[in-house]
Amino acid sequence: MKIDFLVPGISKCGTTTLCYLLGEHPEIFIPEIKEPHHFIREDLAEHRPLYEKLFEPAKPGQLLGEGSQMYCTVEFEELVSARVREHNPEMKLIFSVRNPFKRIESSYREFHHSGPCYAVNAPYGINEAMSGLPALLGDSHYWQRLQSYRKHFRDDQILVVFLEDLQKDPQSVLKQCYEFLGVDSSFVNDTANSTQLNSGEEKLYDTRLLRFLRTNEFTGYKMARLSIPTQDRIFRRLGLRRPFTQPVQWSDEARARVVNTLKADIAEFLKYCGRPADLWKEFA
What we know:
Oligomer: single chain
Strand content: 5-15%
Mean pLDDT: 92
Helix content: 40-55%
Number of helices: 13
Order of helices and strands: EHEHEHEHHHHEHHEHHHEH
Strand order of the largest sheet: 2-3-1-4-5
């Protein structure tokens, strides 16, 4: 079994949304499970039967695809791009991107939301988080992230999709994807205009009291026995695990740090994509 295309999205929100929408095309199959993470696994060969099982419901002739934001990170991109090339040298790749500030905000929320799964306490405050979690800025170097794949794949195997475009005119962006993948581009997805997945308001964060309880020698091990969904349900009801209902607060210092760090990289990336240099005005 060969996978025909991947969505190694730089933007997690864009990856989730795009995979869902592409999977509704009758000529495309994408597993229901989000982000299988197969190509980053240490036990790649041993895991392959389970991975292939995800695609068993596919109908004959359907293109097989999947996506993961983890496939396009500083930590895993070199490994994944080489493995994907070995798996299928004619693989097609769809990268989803968005304004870097929005991507950093989304990743900041995700680090807080997923922290209990990996025993990671994301710093409170965006500037502190960028210092404590280098991936927030590192993974936002879009041009650098793309290079690992360009070493293994031709540019005609790569399509870049902008989340802003997908939100504004989903049918047009999907048509572009269909043409790129070689499936019927006249298909109209009736749910595209109303679909928004992986919203920031769905993400939760621990209060400082809950963090104390998680790390306390008397309560931490008891809490760890509960599944993460159970913890979310209980502690949200108690007000100890809360949704992100307010915008991320940026200081002038933090904004300047992002622009100074990413400006040259973003300029090269937008040039490669044929987009205006002032598409994201903060970096113009």
